[in-house]
Specification:
Blueprint: H1 2-7, E1 37-38, E2 42-43, H2 55-70, H3 96-110
Antiparallel strand pairs: 1-2
Length: about 120
């Protein structure tokens, strides 16, 4: 993965990079199918909507918690977020920044039990 290759020169030789992929092409905050979430299988294939409590968000939280629970030495250093172009095509595009900020606030709250493993 390109981002991991770019980060490798900046980490110690005895460290690694754990990526938690949660992307969904064509997803948006303001339009698209909500889909469903299952703790066993994650967000359904038709899930295309981000936001607090939405299936894609639940999947993001579940995957991140699983990565942090797997090893207490695992640390969340950053979230690389590339999304928004699909929202720009909707009449409701002005809502995207506030919806993203609300989701980020909830993300931090939902991971607060892992504060010792979360930096930044």
């Amino acid at each position: 993965l390109h981002i991991a290759k770019k980060l490798l020169p900046y980490i110690p030789n005895n460290a690694g990079i754990l990526l938690v992929p949660c992307c969904r092409g064509g997803s948006a905050f303001t339009q698209g199918a909500e889909g469903t979430f299952s703790a066993d299988t994650g967000a359904s294939q038709d899930s295309a909507r981000w936001g607090v409590g939405k299936p894609l968000y639940q999947d993001l939280i579940a995957r991140t918690k699983a990565a942090l629970q797997k090893n207490p030495k695992n640390v969340l250093l950053a979230v690389c977020w590339m999304q928004g172009e699909f929202d720009m095509s909707a009449a409701t595009h002005a809502q995207q920044p506030a919806l993203f900020t609300a989701m980020l606030t909830q993300f931090r709250a939902d991971l607060s039990v892992f504060n010792a493993q979360c930096h930044g």
